[in-house]
Amino acid sequence: ISLYSTAMGKGDRAEARDVLASLLKIGGVVVLAVIALGYGLGPWAGEQFFGDRGVGLFVRIICFASVGEIMRAVAMAALNGTRQMKRYALFDMTANVLRVGFVATALIFGTGAEPVAFAFVAHALATSVLAFLAYQGARREGGEMAPPHLGEVVAAIPAAPIRAFLGRGSLLARARRTA
Question: Which among 66, 81, 108, 166 is least surrounded, fewest beta carbons within 10 Å?
Answer without folding.
Answer: 108
